[in-house]
């Protein structure tokens, strides 16, 4: 804020009186003559007195010093990360002493190598004595490494040995060799320590003399330190070790604490008798005495007794982690020796003082008999009912008797119980009662059903089997596909079991009479056939209710749609769906129309009217690019004739809107590629330069010369000129050469995948054009480019052709049985050989000839390479075996992968041949109309004896044949089996399914992509908790875990949502609502944010206008309610008072943009309401707030009114004065005794020249607004506006 001082005549007079009281009189000034004027001028204040300058700041040395010290105390010195060290190598120790080659030769190379290796910087210099000084800079570790390298590579090495005891060597090496590395780095030496099996005590040190001494000294220091320590080994009977350690290791711990020595007693499981004591010699000696004393005492005073305890009870005597043995030793001082678990002995030995053995024996027997083992007979199929769902039944028993261990063994008809005797008896009686009850009311049966019908019995998402379970109150176990079992087990109420069995057999019988048919429908049509939310496929299913239609999973990218049901219905449905597909194919024709972007909105029309009309009248689908897209293409889809009609209409709209022209320019087709440029850069630049015209080149290789240009007339002409100029330029600068080669050589010159010709093109820059099939001259090859590039390319091509002309013929022997491999698949192997080895021609003899001679023809080196490769192939074929891999046919398509990609990968990876069987004909497999075979007599039919068919033999349609080397075939079998998909079910609460699926399926898609599986969620109407996961076996565990983790997250979120949904209402009068909301919602937003709740005010039409609803966590909602109630209580305590405030000061009080009024309201915590324009009483102001705040605010406003009213009155009188005529003003001036000179000072800056003080009455010096004034030169410099 800025303050303005107003200088009035009265204040100026007072100012002058204060400055020069003796010179200033009270009456009007009288002009008496020059002397009086001079005195008056002397009485005027000087410019510096009236406007004293600001004092200049001068920095004292003390202040500077003080500041420096203050900073110095605050700034902590930083340690440099780079250090510098200097190393000296005396002349006699230098490796490279050639004084003439300093700075070059081997010595310099070594230094450069050290710098590269360590990252340090080296600088070399020679001392007067020809010694070498090396300055090394860098990080500390880099400098130390560089130092080691310098010593080893630039300094002559000496060696020495130092002998220390063998047992001290390990202390020199240190943990993981760290001590040895540190020692070598520190001393810049190489230290070699003999291996543990070497009896030598000599340590060899190599390095400089100085380093040798340092290393030797350090090693001897380490050895001297170890000499002070001692190690003693005491061998004593294992049976006395427990007395040495004591119960819970108390005795040995006390000894170690008292003596300071470390005592290592081998544990009972280790069969060693040696006790190791380490430490200072005095400590070891003291510990030795204590141990021997205990040993001698126990050996003298203890005796033993042996008792027989059942082997099964030994573990109860030992206790968990041996605690029971320690407990007996602690209480009685007796050691109990248990035979090892792998020993058959049942003898337990007690060792201790005779008077304590009785007590110990009692405790041993008590512990042995405290636990018992029992069993309950129960059929194995009842086990899971005894356990209960998720172990609920068993949990009730184990909670009551936690010490009893209950064990169920799969396949055994008994339950094992183990625990305290009384508890075991109680548990046994409870389980026996449960078994008796279950046997009385439960039954089971098994039926045999072909596995191929299992999934149909289960139904989609388990709908069929779940219905049977619920209706008949039974449990049905259908074996998974991996078991390949026919048996389905039904368990439950006897009557329910029989009814479920009957229903399952009926379903199976019905399915055996059904037919399955596969329809090949391109996957792109699947979504259209299904329709939005399955509406269209529902119509088909309603029309053919007995037919089940299965579409493949989109992830499989399969074209097979499966129909299953009664034969006649399946055929009808098949024809109907084929008709739908035919219509879709007809309607899927697509054409792209380029339309200038600015006309797209006109084609759409107002509210989409134009585009809608075209779509309806032409029966097509028209897609326009997005507004933010750079594309200009409009895509039309439908029947071909309809698409053309729509295209014509759209182009007509564009032609009407702009003067669009289309012309064709003839440019030789050989120039098209060069005119288009790399990635279309050249032609795009022409289109952009010419207002976005469209230039269309014909397809490459078509031989058409016509180039189409479409756009506004002027721009099309401009583009035509530019295109022709560019073509002419390309033609004049371009050079062309022609050479000839036999057509059969062309593919060899081009190479596999165009590799050979690409090399020539890249190396020379020339373009090589080979003749197309339609060209008359099939031998002509054209080379286009610069003259130099063409010559170089021509030379390289001629050399290639010449080498191809140098043809040789050779033969090799290949066993006739392998000939088929080379010529199979239309000679694919031979074609690969020809492509790989320069077009070698390989000729095999006719099959009937029986010859093994194979002829090869081609370039000499190519023939030799091809022969070698063929011999390798023959060796592989010789070692080839055939292996059969049995995998159910239904998995074959999944194993093959999209377009056989998976099987091709296995074939490549393992270098084998894989043959899948033909699909089994479902009609032939189970056709009820076939005539029965005639009876056979004596096992003969037409003179041939038929072998009986093995029912366990795999079906032919399930057998995959693999050929190749044995080890490769075995690995290929494993790879194939690993690709068989497996399905598991995961139990997920039904209410969480929609959250797992996510918005538009995003959640489930993400999981399927992440875990590479297919996840099937049952339909909502099924109300099933089972979610099926299908995929490779090694992916399932991870997918299941991920799904369960997601379930846990959702359950936590669900609980949180429930907690957050707590609601409460508070009654608040509507007049207080705006106050609670606050300005721009500030107060209510603050409450919402602070308490993390949602606060809802009533709508305008709501009946309960006084109800405010709060939603959130209970405690937070209550806190928010209290906060609102506090505001209401405060508002209810407020009062409103009206006061009279002159309307002329309202604007001044309110301030610019209400700043003044806001400041008052914030300061006094009140609300002020000023009257609106046209109010009855314009002076009435309302003040609202607490009584004490209202009174203070009113007082403040009245004070402001009084202050501002003075200014208002003055301004009004001034305005009255300014409205008077000029004569009036002159009279006033005369009355005052002449015009006022204003505020005059002496020695002012403007008085330095001839200029006078500015005249306040002058319109030049003080112009009014808007009056033009001539510019005057001033001592202050030019005026700046």
TrEMBL record:
Residues 783-810 form a coiled coil. It is found in: Cytoplasm; Nucleus. Keywords: Acetylation, Cholesterol metabolism, Coiled coil, Cytoplasm, HDL, Lipid metabolism, Lipid transport, Nucleus, Phosphoprotein, Repeat, RNA-binding, Steroid metabolism, Sterol metabolism, Transport. Its main location: cytoplasm. The keyword Nucleotidyltransferase does not apply. Residues 920-951, 1219-1281 are annotated as: Disordered. One of its GO terms (cellular component) is cytoplasm. One of its GO terms (biological process) is cholesterol metabolic process. This is Vigilin. It comes from Knipowitschia caucasica (Caucasian dwarf goby).
């Amino acid at each position: 804020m800025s303050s303005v001082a107003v200088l009035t005549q009265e204040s100026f007079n007072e100012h002058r009186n204060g400055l020069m009281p003796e010179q200033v009189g009270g009456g009007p000034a009288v002009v008496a003559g020059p002397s009086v004027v001079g005195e008056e001028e002397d009485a005027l204040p000087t410019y510096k007195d009236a406007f004293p300058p600001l004092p200049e700041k001068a920095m004292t040395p003390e202040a500077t010093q003080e500041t420096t010290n203050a900073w110095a105390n605050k700034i902590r010195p930083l340690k440099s990360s780079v250090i510098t060290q200097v190393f000296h190598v005396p002349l006699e120790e230098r490796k490279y002493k050639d004084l003439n080659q300093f700075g070059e030769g081997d010595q310099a190379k070594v230094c450069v190598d050290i710098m590269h290796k360590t990252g340090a910087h080296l600088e070399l210099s020679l001392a007067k004595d020809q010694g070498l000084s090396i300055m090394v800079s860098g990080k500390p570790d880099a400098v130390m490494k560089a130092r080691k390298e310098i010593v080893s590579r630039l300094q002559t090495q000496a060696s020495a040995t130092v002998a220390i005891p063998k047992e001290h060597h390990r202390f020199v090496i240190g943990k993981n060799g760290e001590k040895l590395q540190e020692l070598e780095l520190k001393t810049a030496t190489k230290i070699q320590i003999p291996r543990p099996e070497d009896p030598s005590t000599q340590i060899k040190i190599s390095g400089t003399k100085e380093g040798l001494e340092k290393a030797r000294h350090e090693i001897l220091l380490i050895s001297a330190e170890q000499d002070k320590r001692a190690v003693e080994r005491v061998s004593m009977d294992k049976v006395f070790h427990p007395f040495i350690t004591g119960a819970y290791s108390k005795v040995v711990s006390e000894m170690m604490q008292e003596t300071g020595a470390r005592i290592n007693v081998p544990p009972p499981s280790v069969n060693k008798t040696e006790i190791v004591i380490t430490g200072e010699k005095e400590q070891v000696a003291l510990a030795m005495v204590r141990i021997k004393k205990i040993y001698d005492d126990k050996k003298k005073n203890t005796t033993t007794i042996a008792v027989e305890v059942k082997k099964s009870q030994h573990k109860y005597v030992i206790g968990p982690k041996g605690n029971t043995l320690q407990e007996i030793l602690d209480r009685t001082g007796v050691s109990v020796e248990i035979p090892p678990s792998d020993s058959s002995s049942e003898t337990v030995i007690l060792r201790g003082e005779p008077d304590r053995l009785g007590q110990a024996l009692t405790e041993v027997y008590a512990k042995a008999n405290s636990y018992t083992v029992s069993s309950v007979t129960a059929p194995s199929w009842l086990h899971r009912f005894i356990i209960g769902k998720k172990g609920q039944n068993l949990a009730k028993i184990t909670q009551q008797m936690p010490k009893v261990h209950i064990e169920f063994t799969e396949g055994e008809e008994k339950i094992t119980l183990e625990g305290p005797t009384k508890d075991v008896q109680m548990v046994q009686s409870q389980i026996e009662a449960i078994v008796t009850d279950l046997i009385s009311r439960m039954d089971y049966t098994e039926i045999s059903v072909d596995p191929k019908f299992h999934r149909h019995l289960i139904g989609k998402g388990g709908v069929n089997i779940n219905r049977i379970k619920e209706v008949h109150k039974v449990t049905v176990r259908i074996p998974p596909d991996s078991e390949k079992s026919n048996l389905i087990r039904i368990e439950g109420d006897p009557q329910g079991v029989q009814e479920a069995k009957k229903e399952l057999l009926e379903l199976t019988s019905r399915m055996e009479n059904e037919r399955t048919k596969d329809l090949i429908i391109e996957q792109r049509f699947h979504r259209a056939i299904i329709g939005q939310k399955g509406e269209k496929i529902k119509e088909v299913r309603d029309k053919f209710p007995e037919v089940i239609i299965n579409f493949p999973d989109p992830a499989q990218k399969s074209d097979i749609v499966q129909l299953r049901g009664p034969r006649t219905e399946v055929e009808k449905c098949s024809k109907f769906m084929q008709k739908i597909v035919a219509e879709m194919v007809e309607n899927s024709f697509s054409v792209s129309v380029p339309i200038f972007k600015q006309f797209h909105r006109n084609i759409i029309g107002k509210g989409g009217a134009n585009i809608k009309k075209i779509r309806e009248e032409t029966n097509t689908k028209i897609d326009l690019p997005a507004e933010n897209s750079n594309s200009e293409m409009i895509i039309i889809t439908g029947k071909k004739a309809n698409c053309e009609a729509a295209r014509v209409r759209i182009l007509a709209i564009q032609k009407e809107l702009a003067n669009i022209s289309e012309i064709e320019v003839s440019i030789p087709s050989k120039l098209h590629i060069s005119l288009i440029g790399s990635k279309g850069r050249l032609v795009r630049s022409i289109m952009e330069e010419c207002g976005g015209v469209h230039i269309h080149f014909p397809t490459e290789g078509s031989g058409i010369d016509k180039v189409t240009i479409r756009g506004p007339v002027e721009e099309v002409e401009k583009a035509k000129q530019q295109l022709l100029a560019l073509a002419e330029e390309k033609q004049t600068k371009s050079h062309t050469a022609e050479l000839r080669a036999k057509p059969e050589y062309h593919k060899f010159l081009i190479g596999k995948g165009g590799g050979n010709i690409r090399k020539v093109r890249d190396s020379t820059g020339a373009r090589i054009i080979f003749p197309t099939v339609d060209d008359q001259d099939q031998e002509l090859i054209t080379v286009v480019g610069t003259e130099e590039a063409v010559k170089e390319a021509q030379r390289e091509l001629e050399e290639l052709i010449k080498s191809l002309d140098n043809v040789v013929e050779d033969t090799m022997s290949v066993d006739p049985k392998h000939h088929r491999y080379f010529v199979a698949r239309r000679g694919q192997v031979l074609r690969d050989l020809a492509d790989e080895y320069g077009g070698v021609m390989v000729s095999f003899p006719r099959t009937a000839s029986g010859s093994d001679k194979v002829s090869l023809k081609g370039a000499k080196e190519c023939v030799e390479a091809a022969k070698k490769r063929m011999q390798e192939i023959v060796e592989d074929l010789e070692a080839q075996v055939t292996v059969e891999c049995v995998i159910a046919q239904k998995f074959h398509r999944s194993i093959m992968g999209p377009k056989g990609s998976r099987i091709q990968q296995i074939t490549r990876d393992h270098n084998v041949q894989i043959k899948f069987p033909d699909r089994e004909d479902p009609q032939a497999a189970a056709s009820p109309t076939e005539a029965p075979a005639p009876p056979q007599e004596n096992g003969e039919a037409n003179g041939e004896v038929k072998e009986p068919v093995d029912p366990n033999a795999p079906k032919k349609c399930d057998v995959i044949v693999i050929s190749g080397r044995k080890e490769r075939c075995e690995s290929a079998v494993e790879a194939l089996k690993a690709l068989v998909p497996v399905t598991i079910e995961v139990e997920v609460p039904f209410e969480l399914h929609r959250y797992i699926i996510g918005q538009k399926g995003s959640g489930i898609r993400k999981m399927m992509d992440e875990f590479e599986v297919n996840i099937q969620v049952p339909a909502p109407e099924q109300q099933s908790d089972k979610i099926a996961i299908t995929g490779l076996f090694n992916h399932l565990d991870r997918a299941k875990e991920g799904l369960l983790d997601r379930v846990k997250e959702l359950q936590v979120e669900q609980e949180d949502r429930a907690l957050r949904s707590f609601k409460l209402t508070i009654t608040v009068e509507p007049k207080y609502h705006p106050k609670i909301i606050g300005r721009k919602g500030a107060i209510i937003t603050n409450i919402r944010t602070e308490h993390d709740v949602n606060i809802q005010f009533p709508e305008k039409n709501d009946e309960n206008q006084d109800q405010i609803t709060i939603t959130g966590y209970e405690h937070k909602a209550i806190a928010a309610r209290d906060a609102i109630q506090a505001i209401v209580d405060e508002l209810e305590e407020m009062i409103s008072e009206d006061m009279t405030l002159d309307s002329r000061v309202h604007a001044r009080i309110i301030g610019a943009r209400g700043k003044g009024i806001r400041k008052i309201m914030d300061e006094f915590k009140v609300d002020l309401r000023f009257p609106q324009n046209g109010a009855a009483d314009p002076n009435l102001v309302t003040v609202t707030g607490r009584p004490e705040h209202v009174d203070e605010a009113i007082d403040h406003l009245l004070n402001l009114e009084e202050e501002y009213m003075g200014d208002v009155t003055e301004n009004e009188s001034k305005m009255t004065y300014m409205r008077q005529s000029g004569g009036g003003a002159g009279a006033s001036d005369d009355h005052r005794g002449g015009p006022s000179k204003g505020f005059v000072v002496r020695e002012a800056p403007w008085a330095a020249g001839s200029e006078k003080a500015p005249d306040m009455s002058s319109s030049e010096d003080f112009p009014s607004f808007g009056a033009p004034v001539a510019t005057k030169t001033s001592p202050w410099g030019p005026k700046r506006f």
